[in-house]
Amino acid sequence: MRSAVEQFQPQLLRYAARLLGDSDRARDAVQDTFVRLLAQPQTAVDGHLAEWLFTVCRNRVFDINRKESRMKRFAEGAAERVLATEPRPGTELEAGETLAVALRLIDRLPPNQQEVIRLKFQNGFSYKEISRITQLSVGNVGFLIHTAVKALRREWPAEVAGAE
Hints:
Blueprint: H1 2-20, H2 23-39, H3 42-45, H4 49-70, H5 78-81, H6 93-108, H7 111-122, H8 127-134, H9 138-163
């Protein structure tokens, strides 16, 4: 269990935070995911632990969103929702700027395209694994990734020029 938490917690936190837009609620979703892992027999997740964790985390995020959509929120302060990032050293400045441009462009994609792009490129899942996590067909996953990459390529030159 300890190795699963060490290996997957950062990825799951990033994934849940992007889906929820809030790091505190993301921590709750990821914690619930690991609690559910404790309740599972080891044979139920052997060989596909990453898929199982991301699927359970995704479902937990959707549960949170459903529950909160029925409740009226008081103040939605932007400061609490910002995820802190560490500044990059001077030698990595250019790579950091490029990454920032890419993330801004990804944030403009429709949510379903953002999700599959992040699962593919941030977490390294195959189309088949993404299909099982999102419950979309493999063909649909491929189409969403293709459409997203096409949009990113189209928007990249203008965004890079605007960042300079």
